[in-house]
Amino acid sequence: MEVYSPATLNEALSILSEKRDGLYVLSGGTDLVIKIKERVIRPDALLDLSRIEELHFIRDEGNLIKIGSLTKIGELLDSSLIKDFARPLWEAAHVFGSPQIRNLATIGGNVVNASPVGDTLPPLFVLRGTLKLRSPEGEREVKIEDFPLAPGKSIIKRDEILTEISIQKMKENEYGFFKKLGQRQAMNISKVSVAFLCEIENNSFKDVRIALGAVAPRVIRAPRAENYLKGKEINEEVIKTASRIAASEATPITDLRSTKLYRANMVGALLYKGLLKLL
Amino acid sequence: MKYISKPVKRVDAKEKVTGKALYIDDIKLPFMLYGAMVRASHPHAKIVSINTERALRKKGVVAVITAEDIPGEKNVGNVKKDQPVFAYDKVRYMGDGIALVVAESMEIAREAAKLVDVKYEVLEEVFDPEEAMSEKAPKIHEDGNIIVYHKVRRGDTDKGFKEADIVIERAYKTQFVEHSYLEPEGVIAEITENGTVKIMGCIQNAFTTEKDIARVMNIDISKVQIIQTIMGGSFGGKDDVMTVMAARAAVAALVTGRPVKIVNTREESMLESYKRHPYRMYYRLGLKKDGSISALEAKIIADGGAYASTTPFVTWRSNVQAAGPYRVENVKVDTYGVYTNNVYTGAMRGFGSPQVNFAIESLMDEAANELSMDPLEFKIKNGLRDGDITATGQKLTHKVSLIETLKKATEASNWKEKRILLKKENEKSERYLRGIGLASSLRGVSLGAEGADAAGVEIKVELDGSVVVEMGLTDMGQGIKTVIAQIVADEFGIPLEKVFILPYDTSRVPDSGPTVASRATTIGGGAAKEATRRIIETLKDAVRETMGVKEVEFKDGYFLSPRGKMSFKEAIKAAFSQGKPLNAVGWYKAPPIVWNEEEGKGEPYFTYVYATQVAEVEVDTFTGKVKVLRVVAAHEVGRAINPQMAKGQIYGGVAMALGYALLEEFEIQKGMPKTLNFDNYLLPTAPDMPEVEAILVENPDPLTYYGAKSLGEPTNELLAPAIANAIFHATGKRLRELPMNLEEVYLGRKLERG
To answer: How many beta-carbon pairs under 8 angstroms link A with B?
Structure first.
């Protein structure tokens, strides 16, 4: 197997544009290497991005936070910018894998994997994430919500590299969280995950965003629960109703990790758990 | 005693923590070849043909070995010789091996293994053990699907149930569990220049393997040498599976004339290796209003999977311990081990006790609840005491420590206050409910009626006063090397550093049976002590001869006589110059037992250990998540030779049992295993572990050297029922199926998968 390890984005893009079938892009490798080992994929060559320093940053830009795609999950966890202004993403980093995995895995890799259980996706959905995709022809920006299509499938083109993820900083009156449920305390693959963000005005919900993981072939929003909450006063009855609605929006399946009924119920339980703090 | 009963550092710690210890995967011999298995494609099928041509054409492939290459017997097995080294007539589970591709590298061997073409005729399968018991079920082996049947009979249960005020009937169910040793299975076999078969590997019971290798290779046992490499864990798991692997490598070494190494990947290990048996347990219990037990009946069915392995012994222990540590005058237990087309099952830490303890200890908690009694009060009323008679009719002549463990564990966990306080607090909480539960056990020490229970240890003293020890007992992490070194150093009155323990080599030490049943310290310790006694006798003779005295006493490393004293080293030199032997084999045989299999009665073990574990949990009723907050484990051990390692056993056993209770399940659907690595076979992680308080209760046994008994397995057999009982205390929900995972706790049942 050939391994290309370019030091610049341009070099990487040119290798990618010349590529044949069988070349895979390697970022942190915590998913790709397992797929190679299990022979789910059989690469002829790997394009290792890990040396490209220009894709490795967390920047404070006014009301935006820009995150280089090669930023490690552990670096998100250590960033006070993320902790203070992108709380759902920080909470996702907090429960992501184990310290060893957080030291290798990158946010870009987690996004491009487009897994319905990817922990950074629901937070990016609610934080209004946008993605920069670069190819030799140029650059395009897409909304995170338009990015994943199905497990492992996204709109990224063969010659594109995800370079940057930008999210909107949370405002003073915004509240957000990420909750995931797995069987154990670490090294946990979600059975269900929920990300939430809202603005609060006069003890009422305003502009609510809810994203659900592991309950559909891709991460989804919960528009009916969002609409229900908008303008409602914060009280227990409202929270309970919203949780019930969100649960009904999930379309989970039964697989090795959990069952349909349990998953749907847990969407409500996690949302309720997170919203209780507002009471 | 300078070392015994002290927290001495492990003698093998340094090489392990510095990475110098060589495990089988680290070892490479000149001209060595690598073997990769071709495995079954169906859980039950007749093998029509095996075509190896395409594999043999691949560059780097040296040979493809099948059953046809075996010079001797084609089957091996711990109890029944029912497991093929290479499947030849048919395959019986997905882990069966059909052929071994031997090549210049592991990569080539694995690639070529895919090129072996096996044609099958699929046979009707059976995966449910209760279905497998029916006459109509497809036969997995020629003599039917019942591997074994055991019973216990005491008194008259019909009469007992008639006298009962309350009768409860309950069913409990447990799952397949993987040992999850860190190091997967591996061996290297070679045929030496003088024609012996030499095998290295992480083989737990090398004497068991040795005998089967001799049969398979059609050579004398004296020509088989098994050298145990450092074990990266075992927990009972590196027994039959290692015999099969060693036999495959030996045949391959014979065919190719070169050393052959086989090492399983994690996925192969999970697929092939035997598991802890899933049990179905149907109990019926008669209770009187005064809180006593009038009758107990149990029907127990163990899924043995494709091969017998140690199922006859595992189920035997379950059978005799099925009534728990209680006084019950009318007992009827029927226990079956059954073949299915699932992965085969065998020895795993606990050996048939974790399953029945889950049932009986949940049942006793249910009984206490029916009687509106506190479970502790119920256990103190019914628990075995000195001189009581067990369910099999054995009068207990040792100190029965059950009540002592109950008292110590419940005091340390504030049982009485918490039973009331937590209930009160729960009334105020909508979401998080706390509870506290307990479980107790009696456990027969060592092998019991499984077979001859003896071991030998050889000691050689050197002229400089240092000592070499050889033994046929496995250190798989439990620390027997350290225990034996402590005993030898203390008996000789020499520093621990002067004792060196050689690797376990079957060609050099007497057959000491398997290192199982938590027997190594009890039986091996006795043998070590006996060996030192023999050497000391020789040295006393040497001192008598040198000093010209009759009376010699050995104390604190010195031989004292009326004419002066001699050091240990001086006495060795004297003995050597007098031509006396400087080595001795110590032999220890366990006290006799009596078991009548026909009548289901007897004294199945010469002594017992007792234990109580208390678990405090918090249940998140929104999600079903059970957080274990604290565990107190009080274990009676006879005497702790090394209290630090003994507590280590408790911490480890509790961690493993936490996985059994809440997380772990080797999932298999229609014979197809679904959890082949640790991404979906969920072991507990460090953050899942509660605080564990380990309490050692020491009542030295009069029948053993130093009074030492067992500990390794008892630590692993109580937490699941303690947690189930704590969940009941917290929520009022009774869970009768393991693991008690999120879905089970939240929904109260497991949904059908798929």
So the answer is: 60
Looking at the predicted structure, is the pLDDT value of residue A44 above 50?
yes
| CB atoms B682 and A269 under 8 Å | no
Q: What are the backbone dihedrals phi and psi of residue A81, each rounded to the nearest 5 degrees, phi first? A: -60, -45
Instruction: Tell me the C-alpha distance between B603 and B154, whole Å.
Output: 13
Task: Select from B688, B747, B753 the Cβ nearest to the Cβ of A184.
Answer: B688
Chain A: nearest CA to B683, how far in angstroms? Answer: 8
Computed over every residue of chain A, the mean pLDDT equals 95
- Rounded Cα gap, residues B397 and B701, in angstroms: 10
Helices B311-321, B353-370: axis angle to 10 degrees equals 20
In Å, the largest CA–CA distance within chain A is 61
| Residue B750 pLDDT class (50, 70, 90 cuts) | low
- State the DSSP code for A172: T
Contacts (Cβ under 8 Å, ≥6 apart) of B23: B183, B186, B202, B229, B230, B232
Structure token digits, residue A200: 């609060």
Pick the range with the lowest mean pLDDT from A12-21, A97-106, B333-342, B565-574: A12-21
Beta strand ranges found along A29-172 (DSSP E): 45-48, 58-61, 64-68, 130-135, 138-143, 148-150, 153-154, 161-168
CB–CB of A266 and B679 under 8 A? no
Residues paired with residue B279 on neighbouring β-strands, in sequence order: B302
Residues shown for chain A: 279
Q: How far apart are CA B400 and CA B114, in angstroms?
A: 58
**Nearest-neighbour CA in chain B from A209: distance (Å):** 22
Please answer yes or no on whether B741 and A265 come within 8 Å at the CB atom: no
On whether the CB atoms of residues B456 and B634 are closer than 8 A, the answer is no
pLDDT band, residue B754 (cuts 50/70/90):
very low
Considering the entire predicted model, what is its pTM? 0.96
Question: Which is it for strands B553-555 and B499-501: parallel, antiparallel or unpaired?
Answer: unpaired
- How many Å lie between the alpha carbon of A255 and the closest alpha carbon of chain B? 6
CA distance B362 to B736: 8
CA-CA distances (angstroms) from residue A229 to A194, A196, A206, A222, B28?
16, 12, 8, 11, 66
Give the confidence band of B749 by pLDDT, cuts at 50, 70, 90. Answer: low
Partners of B614 in the beta sheet? B438, B632
Q: Which residues contact B494 (CB under 8 A, 6 or more apart)?
A: B465, B467, B557, B568
